[in-house]
Structures are given as C-alpha cells and as structure tokens.
Specification:
By secondary structure, the chain is an all-alpha fold. The protein has one domain: Farnesyl Diphosphate Synthase (Orthogonal Bundle), CATH 1.10.600. Helices cover 70% and strands 1% of the residues. The protein contains 15 helices and 2 strands. The protein has a two-stranded antiparallel sheet. A hairpin with a 2-residue loop joins strand 1 and strand 2. The longest helix is centred in the last third of the chain and has 28 residues. It binds geranylgeranyl diphosphate. The site of geranylgeranyl diphosphate has 17 residues, from helix 4, helix 8, helix 9 and helix 10.
C-alpha cells in the first residue's frame, strides 16, 4: 500500500473507533456531547494515532490491538487544542478549518469539553489489553505522565511564561519537547507496548519520537510563516503577530529548514534496531518533512 492510502486507511480506522468510544450525540446533556464530537471530528490529520498503529506494526504487533491507546492519544491531543484555543490561552478563532470550540459553544462549554475529552481519554486507554511485558498500570503511568505538569501542561506553562521574553534556542527546545514531542513519543511507545516490544525497541522509538516531534514543531513554525490560513485551517502568521519565539524567528527560515531536515535524519537513524519493519515509520517521517499543512 502506498503511504497516502496507508494514512487514509489508518485514519479511517481511528475515526471509526473514536465514534464507537465517544458518548453518542443523542446522549444527554446534548450540548457537551455535540461539542466533544464537533472538536474530535473536524478533520485533524490523526498523526498521533497513526504513529501509534504504525509503531505496533513496526514491533511485529497487530495494529487493531493499538486502537484504544491510539484513540486515547487523539482525545488528549484534541483536549489540548480546545483549551489552547481559549481566550485565556492562545485565543484562536479557527482550528482544523472551522471555528474553534469556544466560538461555537461558548467559553464555559469549551472548558468543559476539554475536561470531558481528557477524562474520556483515560476511559478509552483502559480498554488497552496488557501484554507479557506491559501491564495496564504501565500504560496508565505513561499516558498520565505525558498529560501532566512536567510534559503537556508544563510545556504550556513555559510557553505562557515565555510570552514577551527573549527565549533562547534551548528554551524553545524545552517547550517543544514538552508540548509536542512528548505526546508523539507516547503515541509510539503505547503502540509498541501493545506489541510487547522489547526495551531496546521501546528505546529506539523513544529517540525516534523525540527527534520527530521536534522536527514536526520546527515545520509547524515554518508553515506558520510560509502558508495561508486557508491551507493551514488555523490562523497563519499568528506566531509573528504576537511576537512568539519560534524556530524561524530565532534561527531564520533557511536555518530552521535545515534544522527540520537534520532532526528528521536523526529520527530515521534511531529506527535501526527495528530493522525492515520500521520502513513505514521512516516513510511517515519523510512525509512530515515535506508536509504543507
Ligand atoms: C494542556 C491547554 C494545554 C496545552 C498543552 C499541546 C498543547 C500544550 C497545546 C496545543 C496547541 C499546540 C500549538 C501544540 C503544539 C503541537 C502542534 C503543532 C499541534 C498541532 O498538531 P497537528 O498539526 O493538528 O497534528 P491536527 O489538527 O492535524 O490534529
């Protein structure tokens, strides 16, 4: 299967599973479930869940076994987007090509929608089947730590506190390790754990996720200055407008492009311990370097 078909097929599987896991639209109270479904089914790329499934395959597992953690990761990701878009955070009107959750449902409902998505993500993760090496407790510890105050939330705190300050490249990397690379890495690790991956393979995927996550963020920063709002589905030029520290702002556009390529090469070479089975992950990394939105 070529990469385009693979990505589309995996994303469709994830969407189907998300639909089954989420409370139905008819479930009362109607508004919160409508807001949750509006935010989840809004045309996201499904990168993190696809990485989760691909990591399971790369470790010789059945991707169907990785659907629960894949969906859990997407729900945690969507919660972070809904809350990040709120006026108290990044204050954005557009996400995934549509008005943000609070623009449609109001701020109070968007706060609750994020809370409900995060809570639901743990309920979905609980469906993951333990393996010989990894218990439900291992999945939970991994997932909770990523969502917590040293990773996702910690990254957002550093981001908020960095506003209006002159950040160094090192500061920026720390923010993006926590905000972006951590969840990508956890998606890969959880997928691998469902395949009972050896510690050596898990380590390789951790290194892959770290470099890929940073590359993904550098590219995201580049696209913010080079793409249009229509193509991105979110407000382009936002970072520069609020004088946010970004890779192109700190390094310059060309050096930022080189940095993304270097990180992608590093990510690919981390995959060596997985052998030929990692070809799909390598292909995804190459694809992300070329992405236009
Ligand atoms: C806990 C509120 C809160 C925030 C945590 C993750 C995060 C910090 C904020 C979300 C917004 C943001 C800029 C995250 C950085 C990672 C990133 C570039 C996300 C966008 O991911 P895509 O492009 O989005 O995969 P889609 O819409 O395709 O799923």
């Amino acid at each position: 299967m070529n990469l385009k078909s693979y990505l589309a097929a995996r994303a469709a599987e994830v969407d189907q599973a998300l639909d089954a896991f989420l409370p139905k639209a008819k479930q009362r109270p109607l508004t919160i479930h409508a807001a949750m479904r509006y935010s989840v089914f809004s045309g996201g790329k499904r990168l993190r869940p696809v990485l989760c499934l691909a990591a399971a395959e790369a470790c010789g597992g059945d991707p169907a076994e990785a659907l629960a953690p894949a969906c859990a990761v997407e729900l945690m990701h969507t919660y972070s987007l809904v809350h990040d878009d709120l006026p108290a955070m990044d204050d954005d009107d557009l996400r995934r090509g549509r008005p943000t959750c609070h623009k449609v449902y109001g701020e109070g409902m968007a706060v609750l929608c994020g809370d409900a998505l995060l809570t639901e993500s743990f309920a979905v993760l609980a469906h993951t089947v333990p393996t010989q090496r990894y218990s439900t407790r291992d999945y939970l510890a991994e997932f909770a730590s990523t969502g917590g105050s040293t990773k996702l939330i910690g990254g957002q705190v550093m981001d908020l506190e960095g506003e209006g300050k002159k950040l160094t490249r090192r500061d920026l990397m720390q923010i993006h390790e926590a905000k972006t690379a951590a969840l990508l890495t956890t998606a890969l690790r959880l997928g691998a754990m469902t395949a009972n991956a050896t510690p050596a393979k898990l380590k390789a995927l951790t290194e892959f996720g770290h470099a890929l996550g940073l590359a993904f963020q550098v590219i995201d920063d580049i696209l913010d200055v080079t793409q249009t709002t229509e193509v991105l589905g979110k407000t382009a030029g936002k970072d520069a407008a609020v004088e946010k520290a970004t890779y192109p702002a700190i390094l310059g556009l060309e050096a930022a492009r080189k940095e993304a390529a270097t990180l992608t090469t590093r990510a690919m070479s981390s995959l060596k311990p997985l052998g030929k089975r990692a070809a799909r992950l390598e292909e995804i990394a190459a694809h992300l370097l070329q992405r236009e939105y």
